[in-house]
Design goal:
This protein is an alpha/beta fold. It is built from eight helices and eleven strands. The strands form two sheets. It has a six-stranded antiparallel β-sheet with strand order 4-3-6-1-2-5. A five-stranded parallel β-sheet has the order 9-8-7-10-11, sandwiched between helices. Flavin-adenine dinucleotide (FAD) binds next to strand 4 and strand 5.
Length: 262
């Protein structure tokens, strides 16, 4: 097998800037044979010119788009001087990216059994896999309620806010979103209308998140996915484990599934 058998080359079709020089989304073409489960991540590559010649820098990226979409979408930070993101941020529609043929990851709802309330707790770009999960029919077949919490520092970073709030008008998912989706934006640095203003750990500790959503954390009903900043993921995992929740393992479904981005 040659290196080229491991990846395909995809074309960027659209770029959306959320916060200039900081946050953006890209859409690419999708090979017909590329399959994934909502919540999984892809490995993307960008070509880099070095004094030794051309090389490819690879990074993991959660897939924002739904398994049934014809395109792939990714939501990215720009890390100042980051090897991968400084190249990606320079790209434009028409440019090409490498996509590994394999898909990866266990931040998927099949890690759980028998839940009723699906909590999706994210910070920053950790929102990405949860958008895919919202647009997956299986989510709505399996859960009575879905609570999506997105924590950011500044209100401009509430990417996908309009899409999530408008989901109630969606042709297929609208009837689910209208009655069963609760979106909770959290902005930690500035008071923001419609958003809670403390770290997710604090909102859980002081009971504010449960009161605000009218949904208690409960071993029988709650299944919790956590994604984003490793400190947040670790703090939340410990908080839930301290309350008797268990992390799902292969062949041993629990209450928690977590993914760190670095
Ligand atoms: P790197 O050298 O990789 O990282 C440098 C530093 O930047 C890190 O040490 C960390 O402090 C910071 N950093 C890295 N990623 C982020 C981030 N997402 N938000 C804030 N700070 C960060 N990144 C995304 O932007 N979107 C995704 O959907 C995404 N999905 C991922 C899924 C998985 C399973 C993993 C492991 C990582 C994911 N990442 C995602 C992170 C991504 O792989 C890269 O680390 C990121 O694109 C930065 O690459 P870089 O080479 O520019 O900097």
């Amino acid at each position: 097998m040659t290196a080229a058998d491991k990846y395909t080359i995809e074309t960027i079709t659209h770029i959306h800037t959320w916060v200039p020089d900081k946050l953006f989304s890209i859409r690419t073409t999708r090979p017909a044979q590329y399959r994934f489960i909502a919540g999984q991540f892809a490995r993307l590559g960008v070509a880099k010119c070095t004094p030794e010649g051309e090389s490819i820098a690879w990074r993991a990226y959660s897939i924002v788009s739904a398994p049934h979409d014809e395109h792939l979408e990714f939501f990215s930070i720009v890390v100042p001087n980051g090897e991968f993101t400084s190249e990606l941020a320079r790209m434009q529609a028409g440019d090409q990216l490498y996509l590994e043929k394999m898909n990866y990851g266990f931040l998927t709802t099949d890690r759980f059994e028998c839940g009723k309330d699906l909590w999706l707790l994210s910070s920053g770009t950790g929102l990405a896999p949860f958008i895919s999960i919202l647009y997956d029919l299986k989510t709505w077949e399996d859960y009575e309620r879905v609570i999506l919490v997105h924590s950011v520092r500044d209100p401009g970073e509430l990417a996908y806010r309009e899409l999530i709030e408008d989901m109630k008008h969606h042709e297929y998912f609208g009837e689910f979103a209208a009655t069963r989706l609760r979106y909770v934006p959290v902005v930690t640095r500035t008071q923001t209308p419609g958003a809670l203003g403390k770290r997710i750990t604090e909102l859980i500790d002081n009971g504010e998140l449960e009161r605000f959503t009218g949904t208690p954390f409960d071993h029988a009903r709650s299944r919790v996915m956590i994604c984003g900043n490793p400190d947040m993921v670790d703090d939340l995992r410990k908080q839930f484990v301290g309350r008797g929740f268990s992390v799902s393992k292969r062949g041993q479904p629990g209450h928690l599934a977590v993914e760190n981005y670095w």
